[in-house]
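2024-03-11 09:14:02 DEBUG pipeline.ingest accepted 1 chain
2024-03-11 09:14:02 DEBUG pipeline.ingest length=512
2024-03-11 09:14:03 DEBUG pipeline.predict start
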Amino acid sequence: MNSPLRVLVLWFPDWPLRAALGSPPPHPPTALVQANTIVACTASAREHGVRTGQRRRVAQGHLSSLRVLPHDPDRDERAFLPVLHLIEKHAPGVTLLRPGLAIVRARGISRYHGGEAEAAEALTTVLAEAGLPEVRIGVADGPFTAEIAARGPTPCTVVPPGGSREFLAPYPVQVLRDEQIAGLLVRLGVRTLGEFTALAPLDVRDRFGEHGARLHALAAGADSRALTPRPPDPELVRDIEFDSPLAGADQVAFAVRQTADAVMLALGDASVVCTEVRIDLTDDNGVVFSRAWLHPTCFDASDLVDRVRWQLEALAAQSAKEPVDEARAFGGIMAVRIVPAAVDDAAHHQPGLFGSGTDERLHHAVSRVQTMLGHQGVVTAAVAGGRWLADRQVLTPWGERTVPPRDPESPWPGSLPDPLPAEVFRPPRPIGVLSADETTITIDERGALSSDPARIDGAAVQAWAGPWPIHERRWSSGGGKRGHRLQIVDDRDRAWLVFHTGERWWAEGRYR
């Protein structure tokens, strides 16, 4: 059995509820239901006897005011992706176990922060600042023990190396998550993991088989499930080295054309296509700049060359914007490495009997325009959650996967209901909202206007509604962002969405 690795597990309690409600705990009594069965419930609901696995009618019998929402596993995963990206920035190599539970090897991050407890504290601080204060972290030998530690009463629990058996001993056998074996052990009088590990391994194997032996090893802290991220297939990786550094993006792009063709030939021989690629650029100082690129369908050779060019252009722009010391200044490129990070069966991407469809022709046309304008020249829009219109717009470069940073399906108290303005000003533009005597209208602490609006943007006001207060992130040190919204129609048949904050009025959007 493999010796377990020291790992760090991050657990976000009641994540399906967090994804559904869009706010950190505590939550009002709420439960998620799937197939008329409770699959998740808030701590406030558990206080009244609601439990996972109960029938919906039984749960509502315990608490008649229980709020019931449908469970959406895809929503859980979508909401957790931005959290994974945030963890990845501070702890490279994070692996998703399931939405709300992530794992990373403890060695690298603990060395950087000077210890495992220090690393866990640093991650807790970063996540709390990002609005995720409920995170619990466990550090132990192997994922099983670390997950149990993360579910402890303290924000961070570190199990010393070799101490897994003693740590796990008092826990009930139900934490093994095997109802059949756990029920049989309880009927035999074995109620804790310590009592289970006291049984002879051979007797356990004879009675419960290989699966029981595996659970017996877990209970003893000998977690054999090593954390081994899947490396890219080395037969698909291609690289090129240059005799002298190349400085221009066009020079490098021209030089890697044959390398891109070699990658496509290797993919063809394996009967697969590439849907995600990692490009490593090594400069003349030996510094490696890596970036992962996604594709809505699959890459071809010209797509790979374009990604190399775009990555170089972005790197040059960043270097010009944020200059560093001469010893580490970005210079020429000495080597390019193309790594297919995700592949798919080529049969899933074969063209139709009568040629390619509309989506593929559209992709080629848009990619062509993107090649001429640059990576950020063509973007796709998606709707995210938020209270301000500008926060709900997510623009992603064409070809990359759009992951809204905030779930639009979650409740956003104070957000604007439909219909939404057709034109959104980003950033909001200053505008004048005046009274009949040409003075700027103000709003007091109770949300009352100093006078009725008479003019806006040089036009007479025909009708208006509001104001509606909006105040978010009140717990932040600066008091968050607050204001009052107003809808105004002028005599030019223009409908405005404006808000007042501080001493000024701003136009947030305009209806067409």
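2024-03-11 09:14:41 DEBUG pipeline.report The longest strand covers residues 459-472.
2024-03-11 09:14:41 DEBUG pipeline.predict end
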